[in-house]
Design brief:
With 101 residues, the protein is α+β, with helices and mostly antiparallel strands. It contains 3 helices and 4 strands, in the order E-H-H-E-E-E-H.
Amino acid sequence: MEYEIIIRPEAEKDLTEAFVWYEEKRRGLAFDFLLQVDAGLRFIARNPEIYAPAYKGTRKHIIKRFPYKIIYLVEKQRIIILGVIHGRRSPKVLKERIDGV
């Protein structure tokens, strides 16, 4: 079964902020980050239900090499990306996003 991936605006903002931060730290590092996020999204698309559901059915994929996780929901044939969150970011931010869906 093929899934449609929908990236919410909040998740796009997360990606932009992380990209800028990593690029300021070391030129080219931001592109490595995006490659890992892309690999994570492709993995999720192939195996959306591999991770156990957590709060309100959300699931998370840990990104390799970077302290980030992709938070998503699986609804029928859609994967909704709610955020690409740093591992130390307050869970309260994520909870607000999930409750707003």
